Protein backbone atom coordinates (compact mmCIF):
# COMPACT_ATOMS: atom_id res chain seq x y z
CA UNK A 1 0.00 0.00 0.00
CA UNK A 2 1.42 3.39 -0.99
CA UNK A 3 1.70 6.36 1.38
CA UNK A 4 -1.15 8.16 -0.45
CA UNK A 5 -3.44 5.13 -0.11
CA UNK A 6 -2.60 4.79 3.59
CA UNK A 7 -3.35 8.49 4.20
CA UNK A 8 -6.67 8.25 2.36
CA UNK A 9 -7.64 5.09 4.23
CA UNK A 10 -6.71 6.63 7.58
CA UNK A 11 -8.66 9.80 6.81
CA UNK A 12 -11.85 7.91 5.95
CA UNK A 13 -11.69 5.24 8.66
CA UNK A 14 -13.22 7.51 11.31
CA UNK A 15 -16.03 8.73 9.08
CA UNK A 16 -19.43 7.11 9.04
CA UNK A 17 -21.05 5.99 5.82
CA UNK A 18 -23.31 9.07 5.94
CA UNK A 19 -20.40 11.47 6.40
CA UNK A 20 -18.63 9.91 3.44
CA UNK A 21 -21.78 10.16 1.31
CA UNK A 22 -22.23 13.83 2.29
CA UNK A 23 -18.89 14.55 0.66
CA UNK A 24 -20.05 13.27 -2.72
CA UNK A 25 -20.44 15.75 -5.58
CA UNK A 26 -24.19 15.20 -6.06
CA UNK A 27 -25.04 14.98 -2.34
CA UNK A 28 -27.14 17.46 -0.37
CA UNK A 29 -27.26 17.67 3.40
CA UNK A 30 -30.56 18.86 4.82
CA UNK A 31 -30.91 20.13 8.37
CA UNK A 32 -34.45 19.34 9.46
CA UNK A 33 -35.79 21.91 11.90
CA UNK A 34 -39.42 20.80 11.63
CA UNK A 35 -41.22 17.49 11.17
CA UNK A 36 -42.43 18.84 7.82
CA UNK A 37 -38.85 19.00 6.58
CA UNK A 38 -38.26 15.37 7.59
CA UNK A 39 -41.25 14.42 5.46
CA UNK A 40 -39.98 16.45 2.48
CA UNK A 41 -36.49 14.97 2.78
CA UNK A 42 -37.96 11.47 2.69
CA UNK A 43 -40.17 12.38 -0.26
CA UNK A 44 -37.20 13.86 -2.12
CA UNK A 45 -35.18 10.68 -1.65
CA UNK A 46 -37.99 8.50 -2.98
CA UNK A 47 -38.76 10.93 -5.81
CA UNK A 48 -35.12 10.84 -6.85
CA UNK A 49 -35.12 7.04 -7.01
CA UNK A 50 -38.42 6.87 -8.90
CA UNK A 51 -37.44 9.60 -11.37
CA UNK A 52 -34.12 7.93 -12.10
CA UNK A 53 -35.83 4.57 -12.60
CA UNK A 54 -38.45 6.06 -14.94
CA UNK A 55 -35.85 7.85 -17.04
CA UNK A 56 -33.60 4.81 -17.28
CA UNK A 57 -36.51 2.57 -18.32
CA UNK A 58 -37.91 5.01 -20.88
CA UNK A 59 -37.82 3.39 -24.32
CA UNK A 60 -36.35 0.21 -22.81
CA UNK A 61 -39.16 -1.38 -20.82
CA UNK A 62 -41.62 1.53 -20.58
CA UNK A 63 -43.33 3.52 -23.31
CA UNK A 64 -43.11 7.34 -23.52
CA UNK A 65 -46.89 7.71 -23.13
CA UNK A 66 -46.51 5.93 -19.80
CA UNK A 67 -43.47 7.85 -18.49
CA UNK A 68 -43.75 11.40 -19.84
CA UNK A 69 -47.08 12.26 -18.15
CA UNK A 70 -45.66 11.13 -14.79
CA UNK A 71 -42.53 13.25 -15.24
CA UNK A 72 -44.66 16.25 -16.30
CA UNK A 73 -46.90 15.80 -13.26
CA UNK A 74 -43.83 15.62 -11.01
CA UNK A 75 -42.45 18.82 -12.54
CA UNK A 76 -45.77 20.59 -11.98
CA UNK A 77 -45.80 19.53 -8.31
CA UNK A 78 -42.26 20.84 -7.83
CA UNK A 79 -43.24 24.20 -9.39
CA UNK A 80 -46.33 24.33 -7.17
CA UNK A 81 -44.19 23.64 -4.08
CA UNK A 82 -41.86 26.47 -5.13
CA UNK A 83 -44.87 28.79 -5.40
CA UNK A 84 -46.10 27.88 -1.91
CA UNK A 85 -42.62 28.28 -0.38
CA UNK A 86 -42.30 31.71 -2.00
CA UNK A 87 -45.67 32.78 -0.55
CA UNK A 88 -44.76 31.44 2.90
CA UNK A 89 -41.44 33.29 2.82
CA UNK A 90 -43.11 36.53 1.78
CA UNK A 91 -45.69 36.20 4.56
CA UNK A 92 -42.90 35.82 7.15
CA UNK A 93 -40.62 38.44 5.63
CA UNK A 94 -37.96 35.86 4.84
CA UNK A 95 -35.73 36.07 1.80
CA UNK A 96 -36.35 33.25 -0.66
CA UNK A 97 -33.76 32.69 -3.34
CA UNK A 98 -35.26 30.78 -6.24
CA UNK A 99 -33.08 27.73 -6.97
CA UNK A 100 -31.42 27.65 -10.39
CA UNK A 101 -33.19 24.41 -11.21
CA UNK A 102 -36.58 26.08 -10.66
CA UNK A 103 -35.53 29.06 -12.78
CA UNK A 104 -34.64 26.61 -15.56
CA UNK A 105 -37.98 24.83 -15.20
CA UNK A 106 -39.86 28.11 -15.35
CA UNK A 107 -37.73 29.18 -18.32
CA UNK A 108 -38.73 26.03 -20.15
CA UNK A 109 -42.35 27.09 -19.80
CA UNK A 110 -41.73 30.62 -21.09
CA UNK A 111 -43.22 29.92 -24.50
CA UNK A 112 -46.29 28.28 -22.99
CA UNK A 113 -49.31 30.05 -21.59
CA UNK A 114 -48.56 30.93 -17.94
CA UNK A 115 -50.34 28.76 -15.38
CA UNK A 116 -52.70 30.25 -12.82
CA UNK A 117 -50.05 29.65 -10.13
CA UNK A 118 -47.38 31.47 -12.15
CA UNK A 119 -49.69 34.44 -12.75
CA UNK A 120 -50.65 34.50 -9.07
CA UNK A 121 -46.99 34.39 -8.04
CA UNK A 122 -46.13 37.27 -10.36
CA UNK A 123 -49.04 39.36 -9.04
CA UNK A 124 -48.02 38.75 -5.42
CA UNK A 125 -44.44 39.81 -6.19
CA UNK A 126 -45.68 43.04 -7.81
CA UNK A 127 -47.89 43.76 -4.76
CA UNK A 128 -44.96 43.02 -2.42
CA UNK A 129 -42.73 45.48 -4.28
CA UNK A 130 -45.38 48.23 -4.05
CA UNK A 131 -45.50 47.92 -0.24
Give a written overview of the molecule.
With 131 residues, the protein is mainly alpha-helical. The chain has one domain. Helix content is 71%, strand content 0%. The chain is built from six helices and no strands. The protein has helices at 3-13, 17-22, 35-57, 64-92, 100-108, 116-130. α4 runs parallel beside α6 (116-130). The longest helix has 29 residues, at 64-92. It is flat and about 65 Å long. The model has no long low-confidence stretch (mean pLDDT 83).
Radius of gyration based on Cα positions: 20 Å
Assembly state (oligomeric): single chain
End-to-end Cα distance, whole Å, is 66 Å
Q: H/E element string? A: HHHHHH
Helix content: over 70%
Low-confidence stretches: none
Main sheet? none
Shape: flat
Mean pLDDT: 83
**Class from helix and strand fractions:** mainly alpha
- The structural domain count equals 1
The count of strands amounts to 0
Instruction: Determine the number of helices (DSSP H or I, runs of at least 4 residues).
Output: 6
Amino acid sequence: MTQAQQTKTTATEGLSRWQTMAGERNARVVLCNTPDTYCLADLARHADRATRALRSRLMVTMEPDEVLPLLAEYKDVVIRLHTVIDKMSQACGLEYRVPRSIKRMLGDKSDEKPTAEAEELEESKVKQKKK
